[in-house]
Amino acid sequence: MTSPDTPVPGGPGRDATLQALFAERRTLINLCYRMLGTLQDAEDAVQETYARWYSLPDDEQQAVRSPLAWLTRVAGRICLDQLTSARARRERYVGEWLPEPVRDSSVWSSTGGSHGGSQDPVDRVTLDESISMGLLVVLETMTPAERVAFVLHDVFGMPFDDIADTVGRTPAACRQLASSARRRLRAARPDTDPVDRHRRVVSAFREACETGDFDTLVTLLDPMAQSHSDGGGKVRAALRPVTGRDKVARLVSGLLRKDPGLAFSEETVNGRPGLAVRAESGTTIAVIAIDVAGGLITSLWMTVNPDKLHTWNGDLTAKEASTTG
Fold this sequence. Notes:
Layout: H1 12-22, H2 25-36, H3 39-55, H4 58-63, H5 67-91, E1 106-108, E2 114-116, H6 133-140, H7 144-155, H8 160-167, H9 171-188, H10 195-211, H11 214-220, E3 221-230, E4 242-243, H12 245-258, E5 263-269, E6 272-278, E7 284-293, E8 296-303, H13 314-324
Parallel strand pairs: 3-8
Antiparallel strand pairs: 1-2, 3-4, 5-6, 6-7, 7-8
Helix pairs in contact: 2-3, 2-5, 3-5, 5-7, 5-8, 7-9, 8-9, 10-11, 11-12
């Protein structure tokens, strides 16, 4: 299958048109990641979207008044189909299923400095509140049609008339789907602290983890704080949420005692300050997205499934390849 990096056939006009469409790849990746929750699934959906464009006869392509709108609608349909089938797969998933954490292209520290990171595929995902881990987890509780309608309209501004064509419902029904999705979000999403305060709490949490200060860990956690872990059956992880500041603090302390050589770095995780945890080898073994409200940590979203950490180990993989190639 031809990829967006492959020269396109045809004359200059056709080439320019297709190159313009490929320039929208980032938009489509953003769209599909918010719907599907993993970068690999998003990449696959976008590839399938372009494949369907290529399969159109020339006269049908030329009849499309807005190719980007066409691509967006098709990507939405593909995501809708994948979401429907994903429900059955996730019922068989070992433990909790969390969306794949995405990183920023720069790493910040509590001292305010930052340095440039590698240009991972994840850099194509725009980091904003619409991909916060807490919001994506709530999206997982919606029906596929609710999720698609909400993302297309509230995040990407698509008119309900176009969404109706994507989900196979009337515009009025799509409006109701998006409204229902908003109600779910309002009911499930607590207020969050400004980024600066959030960062200070994350920095304090990192320092407490590095020093093994159990008492400080407890004081940083909301009384009803929850910890969610995604090991996917690949590594040992709690199979259910752990609730309560003392229980969560004991869980974190136990993990630290089990492997005292861990290193913590403060990074942007899904658009908010969070932590990456690395072994002595430099391999990222966990990424923690953190919700903060009222100056206290309300949720820890710990991804330890190595299948969801490939983009966090890109630098290490490239280094290993260069030393063995």
